[in-house]
Please model this.
Amino acid sequence: MDGDDEVRNMGFLFLQKLGAGWGPTLPKEKAK
Model:
């Protein structure tokens, strides 16, 4: 796991905490 994966995982967990409503935005972030 490199630094980018760590940041991505932290961001994913952060969005999960904010609520399921953020779920649809995850594929767009991964597509970048």
